[in-house]
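pasting for the record
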Amino acid sequence: MSRDAEGRSVVDVTLAESIAEYSKYSGWPELKESFMAGKVRAAYLLAPMVMDLVDSGVKAKIVSLGHRSGAVIMVRADSTARTIKDLRGRRVAIPSRFAVDHLFVRRMLKEEGMTVRDVELVEMAPPEMPAALYARQVDAYATGEPFGAVAEVAGYARILYMTRDKWPNYVCCVLTVHQDLIDRQRPMVQQVVNHVLSAGAWLETAQANRDLAADFAAGPGVFNQRADVLRHVLTNPHDRVTYADLRLIRSEMDDLMEAALEAGIIRQRIPYERYVDESFQRSARPVGIHVRR
């Protein structure tokens, strides 16, 4: 699905000697700790989180994007807010300080001549955000899908901003692999990247594929959400989240690093080659995608 993580329900990939096992995490802290401890060897992580991990000595590389766009800032349906300027002094939930949703909020604030001091940011696991907005515990929240659509489809929230409109080259979740796995089982990592890129292309080929993916991802082992909510994410509008272009582009990652530096998320600039390995996308070959209901 979309930025399948950003604190929300996350599917990460645990690669054993010759098979892939999939584990579901509901929050970024737990996933981060499991990755650092080596309990998972590959995972979809927040891009700034990977930069920080590598800077802290964790040997890992980003090998592919997970999606583009797919993040929203939500307010209550009856909110008078029309721009982020109207949220001055209000509580705004973000998934994590490492989340690119956090950087998205900062970007929108800067556009209006504001800073994070003009709002009250609170960290919250994305699955909890819709209920918090409904109960008026927060005035807005920024997250990746499907947790914006959950409240939108239910009728008590509306979109204030979409990344598709305000940050066209938005990048968030990235497939990250421990370096020792790359060194020991490079063909298997290549196979995973082949499937990720092919799945992205498959999703963009036909609406029927997106509908099938929504039905599959709605299951308890993935998002554990209603299929109609996931279909809403994939169709309203169609480019709310996209998967066709999952290339790693140095200039985009550089821009993201500058934003993370400005936000104080990372301590220093990190050479691109230390945390990105483009060789797998350069060597990628199409594979068939088969989804079983």
